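Sample entry as discussed:
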Amino acid sequence: MNIQGLQEENRKTWKEIQKLNVAFSSYTSRGGHYIEKTIMELYKEALEIHGIDPSKVKHGYIEDKLGVVSRGRKYEVDFYETNDHIYLFEIKNLADEGAIEQLETREKISVSLYNKPVKKSLVTNSTEKEIKGQAENSGIIVVAGIVVE
């Protein structure tokens, strides 16, 4: 086999390894409420730098009463509320585009219900650099353990 053939084979192998990594990480991305609390505690100091007290974050539901997204649908949400703001959180082992979409959906509904400004945070063990950039460009505070190139 020539050098070009070896390079192509190597490229395909690395692509498969990357897919496997994403698949494995996705498998553990939704580990439940207790894992979410653990992740919040793990990144407590980083959250406090952004003025967030993880002990105040509550898990609950909001209902889209006005049909902003889907009338009557209930959404799980991690949040805390002050006199001035509502803080929304998406907590993941592996953050992907879906995490950004979930935060944006919950922001629209929260604004329609409570008429307060919303601050969004994505707290994750790992994410890709591109996803982190998209989130930050959308005004989301990202707290991540590992950012993969």
